[in-house]
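fyi for ur records
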Amino acid sequence: KNVDLKNNVTMFRRTADEIKDIVKVCRENNIDPKGTVFRKTADEIKDIIEVCGKNNIKITGSVFFRTADKLQSSIDFIKEHYDSSYLTPLIIVKDAKYLSKVFPYLDELGVLETVRQSASILGLKLDEIRERKNFVDSIGEPMVLENGKFNSVFGMSRKKYAERVSNVKKNSDGDSYGGK
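which gave:
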């Protein structure tokens, strides 16, 4: 049975007509109308689709967390300083200012290219990446594994990481991990 949304409470803080417009734009562009697309208006979705289309970026749910302008800013930064292989959904959703700090550091370490297939490291602040790099070095593990992905330490939640450091400290025989 169909429900008349016109006189009901809004879904995703959107009216029934706004939802219909969003669904229409999504369907016209072969996007599954679910989840994060409802964070944006139909016009904002069109702008994001245009930015991604112009730059050959696959449209995934993550791009709808940012505005078209913010995405474009990150894209411009990447194009200006790196190559288009870094134009992936999980990278372009990061702020250009953040990328301008983290990318040079990862490049300096010789691991920047790993970000293309293992972007979870971009969920960390620069000082957290540095601290975790020191940690993996101290326990003799590589930053990038043989499978071409970052060490799982870089994908751990802050809590799990703290537990791992604590366990290493407890189990060490004098060669305690000193942190930063």
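The two ends are 60 Å apart (CA to CA). thats all i got for now
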